Amino acid sequence: MTIPSIFLVTLIIITAVPSLYLLITTIASFFFKKAAPATNRFLNIGVLIPAHNEGIAVRETIENVLRCDYPANRFEIFVIADNCDDDTADHARNAGATVFERSDTDNRGKGQALDWFLRNHSSRYRTTDAITIIDADVTPDVNYLREISASLSIPAVSVVQGYNGVNNPSAGWRPALVDAAFNVFNHLRLAGSFILSGSAALKGNGMAFRTPVLERYGWPCHSIVEDLEFTLRLLQDGTVVYYNPDAIVTSEMVTKGSHASSQRTRWEGGRFGLVKSMSMPLLRLFMKTGNPKFLHAWADLAIPPLGLLVLLFIPGTLAAILLSGLWIWIGAAYWLIVIFYLLSAQIQRKAPFSTWVSLLAAPIYILWKIPIYLKMIIGKQGKGWVRTTRETLHNN
């Protein structure tokens, strides 16, 4: 075999590894079944909402929580008004929440705000059985608290992640595509990971914990992707994250390119940083313990975002075409697996028609993201807590 041929084969094999991971995860996701308790005990739940300059949005979120089908004497809403210079605290109080105002401009961030509350105000939440953390701009499903309570009523469950979705997929092709992506990353990947490794991942929104867990840890991770960091911390300590696809919270996604670019840069830039910092520690833990959960966590973290993965499939496919013969079938398999992966998630989450149609715009979306990936590779990512523009509120 010539040196050029060896190079092409190596490129094909490298591209085939993430493809195989997606295929296995997709198949596994079809075997996921939500754990159910013998009895839902209606736990006392603290609903914790970290907020930074959310204004009227936090009031609407609190009102949505209060509409949940759950005994009113079994939950309390706590809002952390973190470094706010607007009327967030007033809106939260007027809506019926207990508000904790924090001012620390040198130590800003969602993780820092959560840690401050959990470590300094334990007397206020100690009477709860569980604490669920949601963003300040979400709409919880009417059964959200019931589902959280049901999951944490199972004796073996101490941490659960719900489904974090999109509430405006019909507002444009961008939010519809984000809905499709959330169906993949916030459902299929969690369901598949739980089957393959016995644990899911925290997503930062719609997650819940037995109160003693947060009394023990506080919120020890303070990066932009503090939820993923905490997931890995729990994994190292042997704590399983369960997944409940029926504990649903949804958020508005932006429609304008400038707003979407800022949002995606923060999300994916933070993930790239975590890949750099955690890849070797996870591999060392796997080699030291032989526990396959660490290898799976590394693989799940290391697999690039779908847009970038599709871009990486292009040179692998070209290599297969140049080698011709049976190699072409391997190149074709990359794309068949991606299609199977995407469509399976939409089927499992019963995606609306607008989300299915938006998949036709996926090539445009991928091209739009190329500059974002380049910026993340060559630039520095901000660490501050930046409020994403809510266009419906902005336009009212």
Question: How does this structure look, described?
Answer:
This protein is an alpha/beta fold and 396 residues long. It has two domains: 3-31 and 274-378, no CATH class; 45-156 and 202-240, Spore Coat Polysaccharide Biosynthesis Protein SpsA, Chain A (Alpha-Beta Complex), CATH 3.90.550.10. 57% of the residues lie in helices and 12% in strands. The protein is built from 16 helices and eight strands. It has helices at residues 3-29, 56-66, 88-95, 110-120, 122-125, 144-152, 173-197, 211-217, 226-236, 257-289, 292-302, 306-323, 327-348, 353-358, 362-378, 391-395; strands at 45-51, 75-82, 98-102, 130-133, 138-140, 159-166, 207-210, 242-251. An eight-stranded mixed beta sheet has the order 3-2-1-4-7-6-8-5, sandwiched between helices. Helix 3 links the parallel strand 2 (75-82) and strand 3 (98-102). Helix 1 packs parallel to helix 13 (327-348) and helix 12 (306-323) packs across helix 15 (362-378). The relative contact order is 0.15.
The major β-sheet equals: 8 strands, mixed
Order of helices and strands: HEHEHEHHEEHEHEHHEHHHHHHH
Give the domain tally.
Answer: 2
CATH architecture label of the largest domain: Alpha-Beta Complex
What is the CATH homology-level superfamily of the largest domain? Answer: Spore Coat Polysaccharide Biosynthesis Protein SpsA, Chain A
Tally of DSSP helical segments: 16
The helix content, as a percent range, equals 55-70%
SS elements, strand count: 8
* Outline type: globular
Radius of gyration: 21 Å
Mean pLDDT: 88
The CATH class name of the largest domain reads Alpha Beta
pLDDT < 50 runs, ≥5 residues: none
The amount of beta strand, in percent, is 5-15%
